[in-house]
Amino acid sequence: MDNAVAGTELVWYDDNGKLANGTEPTWNEVGTKKYYVVSKLSNDTCESPQTEKVTITLTINDSDAPTIDDSNKTKTFCTNDKKRVSDLTALLIGNNVNVEWKVQKTGETAKTVANEGDLLVSGTYYATQQPTDACRSSKALEIVVTINANPTLPTITKATPTNADCNGTGTATIEGGLVAGLTYTLSELDANGAVVGTPKTLTSATITGLKFNTDYKVTITNNSNCSVETTGDDIINIRERRRTNNR
Question: In terms of domains, do 180 and 218 share one?
Answer without folding.
Answer: yes
